[in-house]
Amino acid sequence: MPSVLIVDDLLSIHEMLDAVIQPTGFSTAFATDGEKALTRYKAEKFDLVLADIDMKPMDGITLLKHIKAYDPNCVLIIMTAYASTESAIQALKFGAFDYLQKPFRVDELIATLKRGIEFRQFHAERQTGAAVPAVKTGDIEARIIGSSPAVKKLIQQIKKLSGVRTPVLLQGERGTGKATVAEVLHASSNPIDVPLMRIDCSLNTDANFRAGLLGENGAGGEWVQQAKGGTLFLEHIQCLSLAMQKELVSVLRNTAHGFRLICATSEDLEKMTDEGHFHDELFYRVASLPVAIPPLRERVQDVPALVKFFSSKATNPLFDASLVEFTDDAMAVLNTYHWPGNLTELSQVITKIASTTEARVVTSAQLPMRLREVKQWPNLADYLSGQEKQYIDMVLHACRDDKAQAAKVLGIDVARIK
Question: What is the pLDDT of residues 345-355, one digit of tens each?
Answer without folding.
Answer: 999 999 999 99
